[in-house]
Amino acid sequence: MDIDYILERLTDGFRPFSVRTSDGREYAVPHPEFIAVGKHSVAVIDKRGYAVSLDPRHIVALKDLPAKRAA
């Protein structure tokens, strides 16, 4: 996937999304602080604080997450 598209999703009116990889795994990005984008890699931080490093060539889709309902 094009790194610039991922960066655009982070800066152009951010909406929560998930990153889907070529092996079918999905990683939630509920806030821009949960992802770091470098020139050759993307790191997604999970709820427990662990990072997963991904090769952008294996990112096949970014999917909007459902909006949370107000309580």
Strand order of the largest sheet: 2-1-6
CATH topology: SH3 type barrels
| Average pLDDT for all residues | 93
The run of helices and strands is: HEEEEEE
**How many β-strand runs?**
6
Short description:
The chain is mostly beta strands.
Keywords:
mainly beta, single chain, three-stranded antiparallel β-sheet, SH3 type barrels, 71 residues, 13% helix
What report would you give on this structure?
It is a single chain. This protein has 71 residues and is mainly beta. It has one domain: SH3 type barrels. Helix content is 13%, strand content 37%. It is built from one helix and six strands, in the order αββββββ. The strands form two sheets. The protein has a three-stranded antiparallel beta sheet, with no helix packed on it. It is globular. The model has no long low-confidence stretch (mean pLDDT 93).
Layout of secondary structure:
Blueprint: H1 3-11, E1 17-21, E2 26-29, E3 35-37, E4 42-45, E5 51-54, E6 59-64
Antiparallel strand pairs: 1-2, 1-6, 3-4, 4-5
